[in-house]
Amino acid sequence: TQAVCITWTSYKSILAKIVEEVQTECEVWILCTNAATAQSELAGYGVGTTNVQFIQDDYNSIWMRDYGPNTVYKDYVDSLIIVDWIYNRSRPDDNTSPDAIGSQMGIPVYEMAASGTDLVHTGGNFMADGFGTGFSSELVDDENGAGGAFNLTVKTPAQVDQLMDDWMGIDRYVK
After folding, report:
1. How many angstroms separate the Cα of 52 from the Cα of each of 56, 60, 106, 110?
2. How many Å apart are CA 116 and CA 125, to the nearest integer?
3. Where are the alpha helices (DSSP H) in 97-156?
4. Calpha distance 2→102 (Å, rounded)
5. What dihedral angle (degrees, nearest 10) is formed by the CA atoms of 142, 148, 154, 160?
6. Is-contact 61 55, C-beta < 8 A?
7. How many CB atoms within 10 Å of residue 96?
8. How far apart are CA 120 and CA 33, in angstroms?
9. What's the whole-number average pLDDT of the chain?
């Protein structure tokens, strides 16, 4: 793990403990509306920020795992990129966070919003084992199928699997 991303909003005492512990292992990237305020509040909890990056941008919710960046190594090599799915919630500011994070951290962002590669998904419904297998519930198929409300192009489950293989570097997708 290179970094852990959080949004500095609700549950700040818990987030402060996360920042305190995580920054001993890797960088912490904090999405916030005001970096000076977030840094001051962390100091109030007794937490230093020696391994913390603040990314100022708007957001709607705390649930970074759902809307935040999906990092992968392009073509299985050391070229870190962000893959940005179409977020499956009506939270426009949350949906822009991968761009803000990629821009500040110098990581290219690949938007999966063009017809053919468009994919509705949420990070909270995706896990990978690091050995080529990804896991999601069937919600990803439902949201990209004929009844999906956000998608641009209706996709079969096999087409969803192929997009995940192409963009997330997985060989097997268990739903």
Report:
1. 13, 22, 16, 25
2. 21
3. 97-105, 139-144
4. 14
5. -40
6. no
7. 17
8. 26
9. 91
Q: How confident is the model at residue 24 (pLDDT cuts 50, 70, 90)?
A: very high
Query: DSSP class of residue 149?
Result: S
Q: How far apart are CA 13 and CA 102, in angstroms?
A: 27
Strands of the chain, DSSP E: 3-7, 27-32, 52-56, 70-73, 80-84, 86-87, 109-111, 120-121, 127-128, 133-135, 172-174
Check pLDDT > 90 for residue 163: yes
pLDDT of the residue at 151? 61
Cα separation, 81 vs 78, in Å, equals 9
Residue type, 128: A
Checking if the pLDDT of 165 tops 80, the result is: yes
Residue 94 has pLDDT above 80, yes or no: yes
Q: What is the pLDDT of residues 112-156, one digit of tens each?
A: 888 888 999 988 899 999 888 999 999 999 999 887 776 678 899
Q: Model-level pTM greater than 0.90?
A: no
Taking CA 36 as the corner, what is the angle to CA 30 and CA 37, rounded to the nearest 5 degrees? Answer: 80
- CA end-to-end span of the chain: 25
Residues 6+ apart with CB under 8 A from 89: 66, 67, 95, 122
